[in-house]
Design a protein that fits this description.
This protein is mostly helical. It is rod-shaped. It starts with 7 loop residues before the first helix and ends with a helix.
Length: about 200
């Protein structure tokens, strides 16, 4: 279809692309220019009256106003559709975030619990050694050390640092005071672990 063959109202009303609408406007502009040339010709011939000119201008104004209203309504509808689509996507994203947060909380809880059931916790408690208060009795010290070795095996502790850290949690009274003083000396660089083992 040629550019002159489509009116502005037809292009906008038929939901054509913006390029087609602009082409229709260009065609309309061409007609206006033709009308202006014709108007100039008529003026030269003293044929056009003021009333004819006013009628032509009013007709053109009505056509342009109608075409612009149709185009504005179409654009408003497209924007409304896009906003509705974005709103639906935002709601879906919020739901996904809630699910991910729930999954994250479950993973976090599982990692903290290290999948220990109630029976495993009770078994772990039964293996915990009694605290060592620092009495200078060979039998009590020997029992404490033997129980700590069993506890290390149960926990599958291999390195000395983990063993020392775990063992010091079971010190009490004088033994705890001794370790507290010794650990402060180690932190300050006044002593090391080797001298603490003597």
């Amino acid at each position: 279809m040629s550019r002159e063959g489509v009116s502005v109202e037809q292009a906008v009303g038929a939901k054509r692309s913006h390029k087609e609408i602009l082409a229709a406007f260009d065609a309309r502009l061409g007609k206006v220019e033709s009308a202006m040339v014709e108007f100039d010709t008529r003026l030269d011939d003293d044929v056009v009256t003021k009333g004819d000119l006013a009628a032509m201008v009013e007709e053109l104004r009505e056509q342009m106003h109608g075409a612009l209203n149709i185009m504005a309504d179409r654009i408003r509808g497209e924007v409304r559709d896009k906003l509705d689509q974005m709103s639906a996507e935002l709601i879906a994203l919020r739901e996904e975030v809630k699910e991910v947060k729930g999954d994250w909380a479950l993973c976090k809880e599982a990692a903290l619990n290290k999948s220990q059931g109630p029976n495993e916790t009770k078994a772990l408690d039964s293996f915990k050694p009694k605290s060592f208060s620092g009495k200078r009795e060979a039998k009590e010290l020997d029992t404490f050390l033997w129980n700590m070795e069993r506890y290390f095996k149960y926990l599958k502790l291999e390195d000395d640092e983990s063993k020392i850290s775990t063992a010091t949690m079971f010190l009490a009274d004088n033994a705890l005071m001794w370790w507290r003083r010794r650990s402060m000396e180690i932190e300050q660089g006044e002593a090391d672990l080797e001298s603490s083992r003597r």
